[in-house]
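Ticket #4471: structure export looks truncated?
Reporter: QA, pipeline team
Priority: medium

Steps to reproduce: submit the single chain below to the structure queue and open the exported record.
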Amino acid sequence: MKKHGRHSEYQSAIAAIVKDAPRGTHLTAPEVYAKARDCGLPVSISTVYRTLQRLKEVGNLSTVSGNRKLRYESAEQGPEHDHLICLNCGMTIEFIDERLPSFGKAVAKTKGFVHIKSRFDILGFCGQCRLSGNKSAKSKMVEYWQAAIIAARDALNGLLLAKERLAQEGLSEQEIRDLATSSEVIRLKLKEALENCEAASRCYS
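Actual output as written to the record:
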């Protein structure tokens, strides 16, 4: 009985942590765990995960998900709303658009579903991450171009050297074989330069 009471206490405290978070804040399980420990709650991370799942099942909490971590919010937090979720940093923005419930009902009807409610999670990249991503793409493009320039320069030097040697008279059979080998090296360098050019072009595609 005492153990059951302790679990109920933990559940109430964890629910309060999520509910008391500022409007628009969506906490991950590790963030809830950190706040619980700061409050002096002697729980393990596994207990937090189980409790959050239990609170979701009974309808006290709802979840928001991107491609990072599942986030929790109070089911009582304001009117029905939808979310914009950044796939990079996980930032979540709440919004309300009166057109979306009607759209959800229309889609449900066409699929033979009985509509209860709709929720839309729009996945993308926030302005800060998009700017950071553009900088990263630019840096990668510069790296690819530099590698292409080095490979192309090596190929050009090889071609010039081969031309000079071919202009010489009395080349031995071994020297001619060496030039044939040089041709293969030059071809591989040109291929490397082309591959780096193609990689650079994909940075913004």
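Status: closed, not a bug. The export was complete when the record was re-opened. Leaving a note from the reviewer for reference: DSSP finds six helices and six strands in the chain.
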